[in-house]
Amino acid sequence: MxxxxxxxxxxxxxxxxxxxxLTGTHVSHHYCLPWDIDLWMELNNGRTLTLYDLGRIPxxxxxxxxxxxxxxxxGLTMAGAAVRYRRRIRTxxxxxxxxxxxxxxxxxxxxxxxxxxxxGECANQIVYRSAITGAKGIVPPAxxxxxxxxxxxxxxxxxxVQTWLEAEDQRPWPPIQAxxxxx
Length: 183
What we know:
This is Acyl-CoA thioesterase. This protein has 183 residues and is α+β, with helices and mostly antiparallel strands. The chain has helices at 4-13, 45-62, 65-72, 141-147, 159-170; strands at residues 25-31, 75-85, 94-104, 109-116, 122-134, 137-139.
């Protein structure tokens, strides 16, 4: 089940936080609750992706994006992700989540998020390719930024993000089906 109550709590908790610059970092704190765990008594990998919403949506609000989306009846969707899991997060463990936009191109906004344990170790990290969507399809980030009062170019994306995007360009779509699955 989607953590609606936790999302509202995060939005309420950060409602008076100062606005963030386009590539500013939103920091939030969360607990791994019993319904977040898997059979191995640690944060479920799929739930990790859902919990990242708890940092991404307040980030979008603090940067002014949520207001723009509502005003224009636009949406925000994920168009790709790459995750690294490195340390276990156990039940009732408190984590710090860091969320920030890395940059954008003609179609997508690239976001990085990470979860940090109390001992300072990074438990996991994700990079997202996100799209603003409207009635006519993808809204170019430059158009959205102009509507927010920003006429700026994207910072250069880190090399590791560019390499990920190059690898994504090589990946077939739609996926190749196994011979026994083709009609």
